[in-house]
Design brief:
heterodimer; A: alpha+beta; 3 domains; two-stranded antiparallel sheet; 10 helices; B: 3 domains; 9-stranded antiparallel β-sheet; 5-stranded mixed β-sheet; 27 helices; 24 strands
């Protein structure tokens, strides 16, 4: 698997690279993993904006890319069915979605194993920052009962904030400036945060 | 520590003296040339929520998630579970350290860590350090701002500002580093649940620390800590502050004291049952009846009466019934159940409770209703402030019944109730309170709980598992939405054609039935004008087309034919004694707007708004939306449920009486819903029994209208109906009557059951308690507390 050869990523290579017009290769795991920004992109739709060569790739390729890390729409649907509204238990997934146990699933549309399913889930571009574990260590002359370190989990709040701010799904429900609104009688209405006095007092514009 | 503290604050105090007073810091920076145009700057109001939650049903596993969301998102959307408006950014550690017992070095015996001040201080420090670390990357850009790609496709220079930290009272004391039970919003001394004072003597006679009129600000907190933390003669805790600095210590704007606010759930909602009923009203009523000169009544009798009354409340949409009453001690009521109790409490208390206490209860309900408004005007805020004032005045009236019975003291004001006083100002600054209530944020905990159930439940591993699960689910869901978006834009036209299919399908169905019903009314409901009341009739009618006289017999409605003729004569004077054909329906669906005119924003007035925002807003974006259309079914059917509705009543008001909200409205009970053909037109009609308004709301202690059934029955067009209304019987003041009524009701129910058994009846219900109650009693209160729109309409 010499994947280094066309390592430009499709952002730059556009449609010139013949690899991008071949649906089979795009489905291949090793290749798709190099999608630029896959690990950090905010929402999936921003992948489109980065530069999918829309006009030059045929419809099927486009769809298949959308479903990454799942192979195709059926597999993606199956995953959705396993996860929502409540995720099924491990044994149920093994019995119902692993191809060798569930004969009714079309080949290629199920999962090879439970592990395969989990791995693909983890490949999904995460929203916001990665989870990291941090420690608070004790000071030198603390009382004896203070533990050596207190561990907690957090993630980069700025990345998370970026992902919320840039969430296109919420675009029509977001406001970027405060406002004073009035009803037909001319009375001020206080309802959302941006209609109150706090925001204008912070931002004079 | 103190030294470090001073150092930490030093930068702020000396170099940025405007820390919180300055209103134009961001503006100045903009002038300094950080960027080019004014429209590309914005602040991002950050809303944090931290709430300790139980992961499993037993109290073993706890989590303390810290969620972050932003104030740019509309309140309607922020709490929709699938939208992921709130992101988990940190899991605050819950358990750490050794078992909570230690041996103090001075040999005074065992001491639990929980009460050890050093340990508590350490815990506070840990929590603030954790939150600070979690927020550190945002903190680093608070001063300079950062260019971010916003959802609407533009790039703006964004200044994140801490806006709100949602939490319950305990949480608020912890994150603001104020000493419980002082108020985090002002220098009110505060009292705990049991009316106890602060844990240490923090105020002496004659000290001037300010009171509820002096607001507590971050600037003030910071100054106090600097000045008094080292002064042994004048301890800092007298000001109500802990010596440590909060996590927001270095934020240029928006400190933590500014960011905490009212929490409706734990304050006005929960306190009604815990305090209002259990601590004030119930003991007061017991004492009142026991002290009566004539006709003393024991607690058991009172309880029976009270509970029977609850059982006798008619059913209504969103109004839970309590067939066994509410005073069962063994039953922990959930908050939504307590809210249901609250809706009908005034009718329950009427007659068995002194009048002045009923007014206190009424004011409490006013406060509850008003504080839950989604859109406030200056007028409604004034009402709210007034209701709060009047409530406190009546409750703590030195000669009032609660003080006389020593249930409360004249200066009674626990912190939970004191917070009410900050409600109006909080609405003015940050908008409606419902979106800052902890019950709304509870929904974000659900995925965590589910994930915990599937984990191996070992602390650290479970934690890791939850986080991984949470991340992958969120990622998958954003994928789903992505696809839905594309499919929606892709085949928008397809949906419309589907709709048409449905409509034509119903037409065919009706043709099959042998009648010619125009599809007009179905067209109407498809193209509903937002904000207008619409009626949807079912596709099939309940009875075959019959002569009115047959209908009259079948439903045993005396006078129906005569009234129908009288009604039709209005259209056609020559209408003689014909027997029109009618067909009857079980129920219709009414959908009506649940907002009022004053809540609708007019767009052209928003003159001082941002430039780009102006065009993009639809005129009615504040409150009206299709979600807020209330859809209710009005029943008038053979399973003996006949709903009461409010109808428009256009006849002139008599000159002497003053105009009030019920002047142009009447309450009626719908007896029959039917259609009738006349002049080639199809008339949608209802046969109703009228109630007259006996007493005005302003005359009664409970503030509700009293209505009485009359013998008048008539036919009205369905479009006269305004909305459904809830009637509560006027139980009177006779002890034991309600119990009698309840027994009569149970008997009737039993009789009906036996009848059905003996005749082997297989049909639907033949008996309904609402109808029974409406028959049994004469006079009814019009319940305004049952729904917010009714409250706004009638009260």
């Amino acid at each position: 698997m010499d994947i280094d050869e066309d390592s430009g990523g499709f952002g730059e290579s556009q449609g010139d690279d013949p690899a991008f017009q071949d649906p089979l290769q795009v489905q291949d795991f090793d290749r798709v993993e190099r999608y630029p920004g896959a690990g950090i992109c905010n929402t999936f739709s921003s992948l489109m904006d980065i530069g999918l060569p829309v006009g030059e790739v045929d419809e099927y390729t486009l769809r298949a890319k959308h479903y990454w890390p799942f192979d195709n729409e059926e597999q993606w649907n199956l995953a959705g069915w396993l996860l929502f509204p409540n995720r099924l238990s491990a044994s149920q997934i093994t019995a119902g979605a692993v191809e060798k146990n569930a004969k009714w699933i079309k080949p290629g549309c199920g999962f090879k194993s439970l592990n395969d399913f989990n791995k693909r889930l983890e490949l999904l571009p995460s929203k916001g920052g990665e989870w990291v574990s941090k420690n608070l260590t004790r000071k030198v002359n603390s009382p004896a009962w203070v533990p050596e370190n207190v561990q907690f989990w957090m993630r980069d709040s700025l990345e998370t904030l970026k992902s919320i701010v840039g969430d296109v799904r919420l675009a029509q429900d977001m406001k970027w400036a405060p406002e004073k609104i009035y009803n037909s009688k001319g009375e001020r209405i206080y309802s959302e945060l941006w209609t109150g006095d706090w925001w204008p007092s912070m931002q004079v514009s | 520590m103190d030294r470090g503290l001073v150092a930490e604050y030093a930068g702020i105090i000396t170099f940025n003296p405007h820390r919180l007073t300055s209103k134009d810091t961001i503006d100045k920076r903009r002038m300094a040339g950080h960027h080019d145009s004014a429209s590309s700057t914005t602040i991002i109001p950050i809303i944090l929520t931290s709430d300790k939650t139980l992961l499993s049903h037993n109290a073993k596993a706890k989590a303390w998630p810290l969620f972050m969301t932003i104030g740019n998102i509309s309140n309607k959307v922020r709490f929709v579970p699938g939208k992921h408006c709130a992101q988990l950014i940190c899991m605050i550690p819950v358990k750490y350290g050794y078992p909570p017992i230690l041996n103090p070095p001075d040999g005074t015996g065992l001491e639990t860590l929980q009460t050890n001040p050093v340990h508590r201080k350490w815990r506070r420090e840990v929590i603030h350090q954790v939150i600070r670390t979690a927020m550190s990357s945002i903190e680093s850009v608070m001063r300079t701002g950062i260019k971010m790609a916003c959802a609407d496709g533009k790039e703006r220079l964004c200044f994140p500002v801490l806006c709100q930290h949602i939490g319950d009272m305990e949480e608020q004391w912890l994150i603001t580093l104020t000493i419980s039970p002082t108020c985090p919003k002002c220098h009110h001394r505060g009292k705990g649940d049991e009316d106890e004072e602060i844990e240490l003597e923090w105020r002496e006679e004659g000290d001037n620390f300010g009171d509820s009129t002096t607001p507590r600000t971050d600037y003030d907190g910071c100054q106090c800590r600097l000045r008094y933390s080292k002064d042994p003669s004048f301890p800092l805790n007298r000001w109500g502050y802990h010596p440590e600095a909060p996590y927001s210590r270095k934020y240029p704007e928006g400190g933590i004291l500014d960011a905490v606010g009212p929490d409706l759930l734990h304050q006005v909602s929960k306190c009604w049952y815990d305090y209002g009923l259990q601590k004030w009203f119930w003991p007061m009523m017991i004492k009142w009846w026991a002290n009566k000169n004539t006709g003393k009544v024991k607690e058991a009798t009172l309880k029976l009466e009270f509970d029977s009354r609850y059982a006798l409340i008619p059913t209504f949409a969103n109004c839970r019934r309590f067939p066994n009453g509410i005073l069962d001690k063994g039953h922990p009521w959930a908050v939504f159940e307590q809210k249901a109790m609250m809706k009908v409490i005034v009718a329950i208390l009427d007659g068995i409770c002194p009048k002045e206490a009923i007014t206190v209860m009424r004011d409490y309900l006013h406060m509850h209703m008003l504080s839950h408004y989604e859109a406030h005007t200056d007028e409604s805020l004034e009402y709210l402030r007034d209701a709060i004032d009047v409530f406190f005045r009546n409750l703590r009236n030195p000669r009032g019944i609660f003080v006389q019975y020593e249930l409360i003291t004249p200066d009674y004001e626990p912190q939970k109730f004191h917070y009410l006083r900050h409600y109006p100002e909080s609405v003015r600054s940050k908008g409606s309170l419902t979106s800052y209530s902890t019950d709304r944020t509870e929904i974000w905990h659900k995925p965590l709980k589910r994930a915990y159930q599937r984990s191996n439940k070992k602390e650290e591993e479970a934690n890791r598992f939850i986080l991984r699960e949470q991340a992958s689910l969120a990622a998958f869901q954003s994928m789903i939405y992505k696809f839905e978006e594309t499919s929606r834009t892709g085949d928008g036209g397809k949906e419309d054609s589907d709709m048409e299919l449905v409509v034509s399908g119903t037409e065919e169905g009706d043709d099959e039935g042998g009648t010619e019903i125009d599809a007009d009314e179905f067209d109407d409901c498809e193209s509903t004008v937002l904000g207008s009341t619409t009626f949807v009739w079912p596709k099939s009618h309940h009875t075959p087309i019959q002569r009115a006289s047959d209908t009259e017999q079948r439903f045993s409605l005396a006078g129906f034919l005569e009234e129908l003729r009288r009604f039709l004569r209005r259209f056609d004077v020559s209408y003689s004694n014909r027997d029109p054909r009618v067909w009857v329906f079980n129920s219709i669906k009414i959908s009506y707007p649940s907002w009022l005119e004053d809540e609708v924003a007019v767009s052209h007035d928003s003159s001082d708004s941002g430039t780009s925002a102006r065009k993009s807003i639809p005129p009615e974006y504040v409150i009206p939306s299709s979600d807020l259309m209330t859809s209710v079914r009005i029943n008038a059917n053979t399973f003996f449920r006949h709903d009461t509705v409010l109808v428009k009543f256009e006849q002139s008001v008599s000159r002497s009486s003053t105009v009030h909200t019920m002047s142009r409205r009447r309450v009626v009970q719908v007896l029959l819903l039917f259609k009738c053909r006349h002049d080639g037109k199809e008339l949608e009609l209802a046969y109703v029994s009228w109630f007259e308004t006996v007493r005005m709301a302003s005359d009664t202690a409970s503030g509700m209208y009293l209505v009485k059934r009359t013998t008048k029955r008539s036919v009205i067009p369905v479009t006269d109906i305004e909305c459904p209304v809830h009637l509560m019987p006027k139980f009177g003041s006779q002890m034991g009557e309600a119990d009698k009524a309840k027994r009569a009701m149970d008997q009737a129910k039993e009789k009906d059951r036996l009848w059905r058994q003996s005749t082997n009846y297989k049909g639907t219900k033949t008996w309904n308690q609402t109808d029974f109650i409406l028959e049994y009693y004469n006079e009814f209160w019009v319940n305004v507390w049952v729904a917010r729109d009714l409250y706004k309409r009638i009260f």
